[in-house]
Description:
The complex is a heterodimer.
Chain A: E1 3-4, E2 27-29, E3 34-36, E4 43-45, H1 76-79, H2 112-130, H3 135-151, H4 159-173, H5 180-186, H6 191-205, H7 215-225, H8 229-244, H9 253-267, H10 274-281, H11 285-295, H12 299-302
Antiparallel strand pairs in A: 1-2, 2-3, 3-4
Chain B: H1 9-13, H2 40-44, H3 49-65, E1 102-111, H4 118-124, E2 128-130, E3 137-142, E4 147-152, E5 156-162, H5 165-181, E6 189-201, H6 208-214, E7 219-220, E8 229-233, E9 238-242, E10 247-253, H7 256-272
Antiparallel strand pairs in B: 1-5, 1-6, 2-3, 3-4, 4-5, 6-10, 7-8, 8-9, 9-10
Amino acid sequence: MIECSRGSVGDALPKVQCPNHPDALLVEDYRAGDMICPECGLVVGDRVIDVGSEWRTFSNEKATKDPSRVGDAQNPLLNGGDLTTMISKGTGAASFDEFGNSKYQNRRTMSSSDRAMLNAFKEISTMADRINLPRNIIDRTNNLFKQVYEQKSLKGRSNDAIASACLYIACRQEGVPRTFKEICAVSRISKKEIGRCFKLILKALETSVDLITTGDFMSRFCSNLGLPKQVQMAATYIARKAVELDLVPGRSPISVAAAAIYMASQASAEKKTQKEIGDIAGVADVTIRQSYRLIYPRAADLFPPDFKFDTPVDKLPQL
Amino acid sequence: LRSPQKTFPIQQKSATVTGAMTPGMPIFSPMMPYGTGLTPQPQQQQQQQQQQQQTPQLYHSQTVTTTTALPGNTPMYTTPLTPMTPITPATPASESSGIVPQLQNIVSTVNLGCKLDLKTIALRARNAEYNPKRFAAVIMRIREPRTTALIFSSGKMVCTGAKSEEQSRLAARKYARVVQKLGFPAKFLDFKIQNMVGSCDVKFPIRLEGLVLTHQQFSSYEPELFPGLIYRMIKPRIVLLIFVSGKVVLTGAKVRAEIYEAFENIYPILKGFRKTT
């Protein structure tokens, strides 16, 4: 079986390339342990050690005996590639000395320098799991955290705060921003501290992020509220139009999105209250009321042309 | 541009006379307490209209900061805009904005030079509060100029809330006098203005999204965190808070000229991001 090597494995691994075709993606033949160039067939890497796990373990199998002798798959990107030896607790009678204590008592600390980083990765994984973030965002977050941690410019800040801020930045960079309040909900850090760390990290890494728009949050908010696709599309259109016509200058895009969802849902069969929308979006219902008051006068222009009104525009609630 | 209030009426009368000041013009008029050092200039350059456009700006700032509320107040020293700051010639391509930022707050520190017993100060002085569990300083307030001071037991003092450099110095002196009257050998050492805050209005709405796109190495605009754009200007080192309405807050200055310079730098940029609707 031939397994294609991933081209973008990361900058930490040393790159082997075919001398004649440096751009060609090498094909890995792990039966023989070779890396072969597909263009000319040259065997570039010889006797390559497979760093994957030894056995595939599944959660439903009886896990009394874990046949893996090499431990977890190596994570070279983020760990600094340490090659330490760990001695685990023995199983036979010979592992106990005369008093009944086990020999080789504690596992030596495996990587004290990366201990905090590993802890942070675990925390990031927990946080991301709470809001069901995909693997690519978690990887990006881990990468960001590693860069920030190595830079040491934010050393005094709590690692959890930096991890939360990295998670926020990663979501933004992947094009699926989460609001600060959503990150707060899965983290123990306050919004203020996450905001501060966010600005510091952007400065430290010298990157910038795109501005958030109302459309980024529509699909998530609407599906959390259980609104049909028609209403979601209408709300997206309303919010975009409202921003284009500059009806809501200076308002946070989240508030405008919430008000647009309110207007769209009130015009359809699935009416949602301001409180429900406020709960999902993380905005106060008075905020939704304020933004709604700004877009209400031009309601007729804001709806998409093909929208089916359950409640006509003039019967929309006026707050 | 030159409104009658800005120019000195005495000068207008003698506008036809070029060159030296007429003997009939009173120099020490109550209308121009600071301007005497600079009065020769506009007279000499009456022919050059461009120069005149620059000078009213400086005069305006000076007249604005005149503490007309205290008629008896004579300045201890002239404002920093005396001859030592050169008047920059107007470049033909750009014109001055005509808007002058107003100072809103001055924070200054001074060393009274002796250790103080905060408890006696708090008990004997009027308008003083001292809560050592909350904060280790006496918070004292005076009504004229309306300021607040934090007085520490080391003898150092922070004075906030004044609207001009002169007022800040005067207020600090008043606090030092209060402390002196309470029996401490207070001196007035190392008075230094630490921070000046100014604000102004450009009178047109601004497209902050455009500004953050083009100046992203200086700007930070996060509507979730703060509704205004935070612009960190490198030269001079000033932080500006720019809002959609067109209001601008400038802070971080040690001298008044930095605020003015920063505003002059940002004004053409903001004009470029004016909302057209």
